[in-house]
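From the shared-data thread, chain only:
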Amino acid sequence: MPETAAPVVTSPYEGNEGRRPSAFGRPLRVLAWLSFVAEVVIIATGGAVRLTGSGLGCSEWPMCTPESLVPTPEQGIHGVIEFGNRTMTGVVGIIAIAVLLLTLNAVGGRRPLKAALWFALGGIGAGVVCYVIATIAGVPAFPFFSVGLLLATVAGAVHSLRITTHRRDLTLLAWIVLVGVVAQAFVGGITVLTGLNPYIVGFHYASSLLLVCVTAAYLVRMHESGAPRERVVPRWFAMLSHITGFALGVTIFFGVLTTGSGPHSGDANVVRDGFDATFLAHVHAWPGYVLAALVAALTIIAWMQRLAPRRWLLVLVIAILVQVGVGIWQARDGLPELLVGIHMVLASLSAAAYTVTVLRLKRPVE
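Structure, as tokens:
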């Protein structure tokens, strides 16, 4: 009788996509948590830049001054705060790269890992070419370097997803974080070069908040199998949950506009967006109250019917209640910097809690 060769397994998930992620070792789990924490921290440091008037503490980008990469004594504390936020961007990027490489190795083995490294080298090369062309043309060179690097990163993500056959969810999430960090570095530079344009600053914050949600989603999916998922709540409950998400998005949107009209511009000479901050504060509050009511209703229903997302809905209720309290407090006290900063960070944590709640509406079919 001919001997039958055993199938070659090149990935921990080869032929067993529903398997739980036991291949995700402690280093990846720790780094995934660090990635989430770092994304929250960079919102706090970015808020500190704006709230202390340090937005132009470094007048150039990527250099802090035309002659120095780091802040000079003449720039004082504002230069230190702005440079600290830039340094945090590097930390976030390094962690994102580590999470991506470990993810690719865990779900696909050497092939996607080697491909990603080749795209990384190609991205650096493309960035250098763009930098040289821009220098010869006499235009700011580093933005073009960033664009070249960003395009190569996106191309690497597309190729990686094409050759990855297992746990594409985790691969996609890891790539989104890395692409987002590279894009955020570029947007941060544009923010400085445009003199802290309030719309770009608002987009910068909203993008950071979305990356917090993506890292939270990675943490959830990392502890689940890659099997197909099924809904574990009634359809109407899922629809109401998504309506709640819309209310959350609207609340955050008007919150960004309100901040863009308020007193904390990042620099005393920055022109605001021209809206009436007092009126926008009320507009921001209206969807916030609707959001609080929806979350309260979902939580009560979930606990009465013992639905899967009930514990995370309770976390979301607490986050929203604290947010409402801080919002009212800061409005009555004239928007003190510390409370505004707390409000910004809590918004990202509320969005992360909502992300986890939505993911709990389904579970893998074991």
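Residues 24-223 form one domain.
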